[in-house]
Amino acid sequence: MNAPTQHVPTAGALLEQFAGEWRSATRHPFLDAVRSGSLAPEAFSTWLVQDYLFVADLLAFQARLLARAPRPAQAVLAAGLVGLEAELSWFEQHAARRGLGLEADRHTLTQDYRDFLRDLELAPYGAAIVALWALERAYLEAWRGAAPGAPAYAEFVEHWTVPAFAEYVAGLERAADAALGAASADEQAQVEAAFKDVTRLEAAFWGIAQPGGAGA
Ligand code: MP5
Question: What is the pTM assigned to this prediction?
Answer without folding.
Answer: 0.94
